[in-house]
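The records we work with from here on pair a chain with its fold. These numbers are not coordinates but entries in a learned vocabulary of local backbone shapes. To see the layout at work, look at the sequence and tokens printed below.

. . .
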Amino acid sequence: MGILSPSVFRVNTLFSILDTSKRPCLLTCAFLCSLSMGQIEGLISSLENMEDIAGRIVLKKAIPKRGPSLREIPPYISQEIRFVLELNGIQRLYSHQEEAIEKVLSGRDCTVSTPTASGKSLIYNIPVIQRYLEDRSSKALYLFPLKALQQDQLKNLRFFISALEEADQPRVELLDGDTPQSRRRRLKASPPDILITNPDMLHLSILPYHASWSGILRGLRFVVIDEVHTYRGIMGSNMAWVFRRLHRILDHYGAHPNYIMCSATIGNPEELSKQLIGRDVEVVKTSGSPSGKRFVLFVEPSLSPVTTCLTVLEMAIRRGLKTIVYTQSRKLTELVGIWISQKGGALKRAVRVYRAGLLPEERRKIEEELSNGTLLGVVSTSALELGIDVGALDCSILLGYPGSIMATWQRWGRAGRKLQDSLVVLIAQEDALDHYILRHPETILEGTPEAAILNPENPKIVERHLECAASELPLRFSEPLLRDAPVILEKANEMLSRGILVESHMGGELLSQRRYPQRLVDLRGTGQNFRIVDSKETTIGEIDEVRAMKETHPGAIYLHGGRQFEVLELDLARRCVKVRPFKGDYFTRPLTDKETIIMEEYESKALFGAWIHCGRLKVKEVVVGYEKRSIKGQRVLGRFPLDLPPNVFETEGIWIVIPSGCRHSIERAFLHFMGGIHAIEHAIIGVMPLFVLCDRSDIGGISQVIHPQLKESVIFVYDGVPGGIGLSKEAFRVSDKLVKKTFDVISGCECELGCPLCVHSPKCGSGN
């Protein structure tokens, strides 16, 4: 093994110093800090002197910069890798990097849960390259949840290994949905040493055709899973089964790789990792990486939150500060984009809208323009929360609390990645949780991130993946997957009786009736997408099935890329939405109706004079109409009926039975009992993200004065996903704290009759 002369890499090294994926060079950091320091403090000073904002800053805090905790590069790291590190300006490792690398090279599965921009990529790249230099048959599989992350890592890894002699460089290749069939055939025939791919390709292309990929599977020494915190809820529950299927295939080929997992800071990294891969892991969660000085502002706007947001954004852009605005929904992202367009001028030219649902080429263009400085600002949903390379950002503006401590720090961490001074601004919306955070900023600044929840025992998910597993390799009653899990064995026998699985002629093995059941399993649980087309049948975007009913029904105003479209037709058979350009001053919001049936009760307990239960529910939800609201002021302009098919699914939930005496007392006082329990339902759903890593859209609710089964007044809160994803079970576990916090939010509000700051819900299908 040899090393090329350093002179060959002088130019490359210069570029590596500026590369956002590499550890920031001290000279570069000092330069950036000198540029941003005065501008950041100048911006804060200007905001404090603005009449509409000055008295509305409820928190101003400077978080001091933090120096690194460094350790020597261990002696077991090869000279070749040491040289590569030196060329990238790395003389020593951060403490968490050294700790994790030691665990991995000792043969242990490891999860690293540290903040954004803490150098996690070295934690997997160093062991993978080290093993390859020792054993050329060693293979690695890298999994990233987004295409943009795959492309970034491919570029960065190829650059990193370019310092090795050509004969010593592991071959790195990318496999995604855009990889041509001819290219895929070459990858199968001549497998790379490192294959970068995503969960969907593993599920749809590698596992079903494992024999074709045996060249890489047989020699697999490492499985790298990045952004592990995103594998929660329905996606995480599906991925837990994808990894169980992967284990079966790897056992078949005699491969026993180590897992290296990287996550944002969450409350339960060990539990999540173990649920995900079904193996014990060791966790590293104390970061040794440095951070620049961060200024934090919490703002309670006197004007509308959007107006305040646009003011801060425009002032930051005028000072040359690269800024990202995070919103809570696609619709709000597009509305902000429209308002920016209406303002015109420099702001319109410098800022773009970024969200899922845009065409891939649109997103790539925005990423590139942000990275190269063509754009100074972007308005985004959580789509830019992950570590996609968009260059060095100076400001992060949160238009509303993201719903979790983890997401808040992720979004704040997008600014200041080069260790320059940064500004993060939280602008509260008219939402109970937002104003609770304003009153209790320590929740964010000192609180523990939430637990990430998934449910591998979701019956629908178990069934889908057992069928996939049986199609890949026959299921044996003697294998651990069935033998050690009575629930799974019971489900397999049920599927056998229904003819989904069939027994082999020799007996003892279960086979899939279908040849390729993987194509019927959507890992994200959102169903097959609908195409959104214009009058020329040109596809302008996509939307998932659940959102299609609510956002692209006939008459809806669909927002895309800062433009408005009126929906002419929702074609359910063709899975197509026809739209035409629209110029108007209103948007639309769906109205829904729900029914809930209790299927099974798991457990119950007394709760502040009432009873709370946890169990299995059947939910029927139908979009019955929509309302038009003015863009300015969001005034209701009218309501219109719709006739759409219902969405019926089974899930898990909690329900609180209100004592009849309580109802009678309230009604005797001539108070609105139904309005009261509906308000409590909203407040509970609004507060749940403080305890469980979820979003309002992950949770549903319904309140009934008299439930047909129970003959009592009931408040239901349920997982908004068929089969359930564990959110309600966790809510039941912490129900005392959940209800107490709900009471604090309602009683702490200054209103008399209920308002958006306590019990109104922005997602209520009944118009609150």
In short: Residues 1-35 have pLDDT under 50 and may be disordered. Residues 98-284 form a domain with the Rossmann fold fold (CATH 3.40.50.300). The CA atoms of residues 593 and 758 lie 23 Å apart. The chain has five domains: 6-65+290-437, 98-284, 459-520, 527-584, 594-768.
